[in-house]
Amino acid sequence: EVAAIGCVAGRRSKTISAVQFQALVHWIARHKGITFSECIAKLCNHHPSQRTRLENYFAQFAHGSSRGFMTVYEFTRFCKTFGLFKVKLGRFVEGDVQFLFAVGGEGKAVDLEGFRRLLSQVANRLDMTTQALMHFLGEKDAERTYTGLDEKPGSGENNVPRRGALIVR
Question: Closest by alpha carbon to 60, among 92, 82, 86?
Answer without folding.
Answer: 82
